[in-house]
Each structure stands twice: as structure tokens, then as C-alpha cells.
Design a protein that fits this description.
single chain, 380 residues, Rossmann fold, 2 domains, 7-stranded parallel β-sheet, 15 helices, 13 strands, elongated, binds ligand GMT
């Protein structure tokens, strides 16, 4: 199939997932065209069957805000037409679901029918999507998509609760590529970070408020009071400066490393003892799955789809959002019990295997087929 993938090119989960999906499909022989404003972060090496079309914003003195939606729509029309795409798969409803619909309508006027598959990722529904500035358009975009998928049961339910949805939403879980994410021996790296055998706790996110990274630091401080430990913070975002100040105020800077955005997250996970993910909202928690694939147990909140990924008492522990005390106590007791930690590591790996890309990609191929079958009914 010739598939156009529209996504945000950033380190955010939806962009990462969309890119990995495209790369996986390309390996199976599909022709994949990424269409977005920058080369996606994980599209950093040449791969056969993969193409990238950059959407350049058009500037004009009249425009206080460059109309990205319009340039993206025109680019989709262009790429579908000239690359003869079979379908469009758009990730993150805002604005991509509506842009997909608009491109579809324009193409239909020109005698071309291209189905649009929309994947909902989380904040496009639960945080940004429900705001009045977006809600009617998001609802419309979802209902007008040919096939809609959500990355967890929790997100499907929230979408149905928050919007008036007349479309069936299929759950296709996020996935993991074990060729990349698996525990490798990085003892030299571990020694450099924790020379005296300190425990290593890791957090990976885009440092937005919704991730509650402040909780991560507070949990870590409590762990540190009980045992030698190091905290590695991977990612970057609006909260970072505030968090750096917090670490200074708590006088724990020597034990906390801000690593910024990293391409090789798997190398950091390879030396981790625990992953902390105390988010306020989390439709799935790709960072948790990536950690589990590297045999790292997860201490998480119970937000959104996290309990579908992290199994309480098996692959890690779950607490109510904001319950720093509990998350710290769970971290301490697990780190103090090497046998249990080892058992959780193994369980984490087994659970991660349920989300192997090779299984999940078949689901996407199935829904693409379903979308293509709609072509004839919907086009009439
Ligand atoms: O806001 C974010 O955390 C980023 C966001 C995105 O769209 O990039 O992540 C969402 O999609 C990921 C991939 O499906 C999920 O793993 C994350 O849980 C989800 N984030 C939230 O729901 C907050």
C-alpha cells in the first residue's frame, strides 16, 4: 500500500509512535510518505520505502499567524495526487483529523477518493481537545474519519464520554520494537553515572505540567533519604527551568541529571532500576512500555491507560495521581528487595511482549484494509 502519515515530528509520544509505525510498515514493503513540517525526530536514518514531504509555512505580512492548516491540506492534496497514495493515516486529532477530511473532500471534487484513518493519542481528546476552542472541530473530524483508532481502552471510553461520537472507535494499543528496546549491557555507562553502586531512577517525558515531574523529584528525594540513588531526567519542555530551581532549593543537584532530549533512550533505560511516571493524564504511557521492554519496573499513577500497561504488583506499582508518599514507599520497598525487583523485571518484559510491533502492525494493516473497503460505499 502507499500510505501518507501525518503527525507531529517532535519527541512526543504520538510522533514517535507514528514514525515507528511508518518504519515498520516500510520494512514490510509498504511505501510510506511522512507529511509534516519537520523531519520526524525518529526518522534519522535512510530507510528504503520511506519518503518525507516537508510542509513549509507560507508567510505574508497580512498573516499574524501563518495558516499551517491550509498549507498542510494543500500538501496532502499534492502528495496524494502525485504519489498516488491509497490512504492517509493521521495521528493526533488536532488539527490532523479535520485536515484529512478537508483534503479528502478536495480530492473527491477532483474525482479521487482517499480514505482517512485517524488515531487518537490522548491530549488531543483529554486536555486540548475538550477545550471549547477545539471541541466541535475535533468531534466533527473524528466522526468524518473513515476509521478511528484509540491507543487504549481508557482513551476510547473518554472520547465516547466527552464527545458525541457516532463512529466505532477501535482500540489498537501502542507498540514496542524489541530490535531497538531491549536490555543491553551498559555497565561502563552505569559506572559513570553511579560509581558507588547507587540505584538509578529514570523519568522520560516532555516536561509539561500534565507529567507532574515535580512529583518525580519529590519521590526521588524520599528515596534518596533512604539509600544512595541517582535520578536521570530525559526530555525537555516548559517545566524544566522550574524543576532545575526546585532541585537547587532541595540541594539534590549532585544526584539529579537533566539529560535533555535523547535519541538513544534505550541506552539510558538499560542502566535504570526504576521508571517513574506519575502523570496526571496519560492515555497509554509509551515511556512506560519502552522501559518495561528494557526490563525496568514502573512506578506510575493510575491515570488513563497506565493501568492497561503497568500491572500493579507485577510489573510495578500504581498509586492515585499525586500520591507521592505512596509512590516513594513503593519505590523504596522494591529497590530494597533484590529478589522481588528481579521478578518484576521479568514480569515487565513479559508484559511488554504483548505489545510487540509485529503483532500490532497486523492490526493496522487490517484497519487500512477496512478503510479501503469503505472507499466504494463512502464515495457514493
Ligand atoms: O502530551 C503528551 O504526553 C504527548 C502525547 C503526544 O501526542 O505526543 O502523548 C500521548 O500519546 C502517546 C502515544 O500514543 C501516549 O503514550 C501518551 O500517553 C499520550 N499522552 C497523554 O495522554 C498525556
Amino acid at each position: 500500500m502507499k500510505i501518507g502519515i501525518v503527525c507531529y515530528p517532535t519527541f512526543g509520544g504520538s510522533g514517535v509512535l507514528a514514525t515507528e509505525l511508518g518504519l515498520g510498515l516500510a520494512k514490510k514493503g509498504h511505501l510510506i510518505h511522512f507529511i509534516t513540517y519537520r523531519r520526524p525526530a525518529r526518522l534519522n536514518t535512510f530507510q528504503e520505502n520511506v519518503y518525507f514531504h516537508e510542509v513549509s509555512p507560507f508567510d505574508y505580512p497580512l498573516f499574524e499567524f501563518k495558516p499551517y492548516d491550509t498549507t498542510l491540506t494543500s500538501k496532502l492534496v499534492d502528495v496524494v495526487t502525485y504519489e498516488k497514495l491509497d490512504l492517509l493515516h493521521v495521528h493526533y486529532a488536532i488539527p490532523h483529523a479535520t485536515i484529512g477530511y478537508l483534503a479528502k473532500k478536495i480530492l473527491l471534487k477532483r474525482g479521487r477518493y482517499v480514505p482517512v484513518v485517524t488515531t487518537l493519542h490522548g491530549t488531543d481528546i483529554t486536555l486540548v481537545g475538550i477545550d471549547n476552542s477545539f471541541a466541535p472541530v475535533v468531534e466533527f473530524g473524528i466522526n468524518e474519519s473513515d476509521v478511528v483508532t484509540a491507543v487504549s481502552q481508557s482513551l476510547k471510553k473518554q472520547t465516547e464520554d466527552l464527545f458525541d461520537i457516532d463512529k466505532e472507535i477501535e482500540v489498537i494499543y501502542n507498540f514496542i520494537n524489541f530490535e531497538r528496546f531491549s536490555r543491553t549491557n551498559k555497565e561502563h555507562f552505569r559506572k559513570a553515572i553511579a560509581p558507588d553502586g547507587e540505584k538509578i531512577l529514570v523519568h522520560v517525558s516532555n516536561f509539561r505540567k500534565v507529567k507532574r515531574v515535580e512529583d518525580v523529584i519529590n519521590i526521588f528525594a524520599k528515596v534518596l533519604a533512604k539509600m544512595p540513588a541517582k535520578l536521570l531526567l530525559v526530555g525537555d519542555g516548559p517545566e524544566r527551568v522550574h524543576l532545575e530551581e526546585l532541585c537547587r532549593a532541595m540541594e539534590i543537584c549532585d544526584e539529579v541529571r537533566f539529560l535533555g532530549n535523547q535519541d538513544a533512550v534505550e541506552e539510558i533505560l538499560a542502566i535504570a532500576d526504576l521508571l517513574l511516571i506519575p502523570s496526571e493524564k496519560e492515555s497509554f504511557g509509551l515511556a512506560a512500555l519502552e522501559a518495561m521492554a528494557c526490563q525496568v519496573p514502573v512506578i506510575s499513577s493510575d491515570a488513563g491507560g497506565l493501568p492497561e500497561v503497568n500491572i500493579h504488583g507485577k510489573t510495578g506499582y500504581i498509586s492515585p495521581v499525586g500520591d507521592v508518599e505512596n509512590m516513594a514507599a513503593q519505590s523504596i520497598s522494591l529497590l530494597q528487595n533484590p529478589e522481588l525487583l528481579q521478578e518484576f523485571r521479568q514480569n515487565a518484559l513479559e508484559q511488554a511482549k504483548r505489545f510487540d510491533i509485529s503483532k500490532v502492525i497486523l492490526d493496522y494493516e487490517r484497519i487500512y484494509q477496512k478503510a479501503l473497503e469503505n472507499v466504494y460505499t463512502s464515495a457514493e
